[in-house]
Amino acid sequence: MQIVLNPHYEMLLQNKLTSGLYSSFNEVIQEGLRLLEERDQLYELQLKNLRAEIKQGINSGEATVLDIEGIKIRGRS
Q1: Are 28 and 17 in contact (CB under 8 A)?
Q2: In the Cβ-directed half-sphere of 57, how many Cα atoms lie within 13 Å?
Q3: What is the domain partition of the chain in residue ranges?
Q4: Digit-coded pLDDT (tens) for 26-52
C-alpha cells in the first residue's frame, strides 16, 4: 500500500517519529486509524442514544399546551 500525504501531515508524521513516542511510520498511522475507529464508534453510540431519546419522546404521549402562568403561580406558592 502506498500513501501520499500533503506537506502538513508529512511533517506531523515526521515530528511524531522524531519525538520518540513512535518507532515507525506504521505505528503513527495505526494509532491514527485506532483513534479514527474510536471516534466512529463513539459517534455511532451517540447516534443510537439520540435515536432512543427521540423514540422515548415520541412514545411519551400527546403534546400539551405549556401553561406558563400556572407554573408561575405554583412556583410562587
Answers
A1: yes
A2: 8
A3: 7-76
A4: 999 999 999 999 999 999 999 999 999
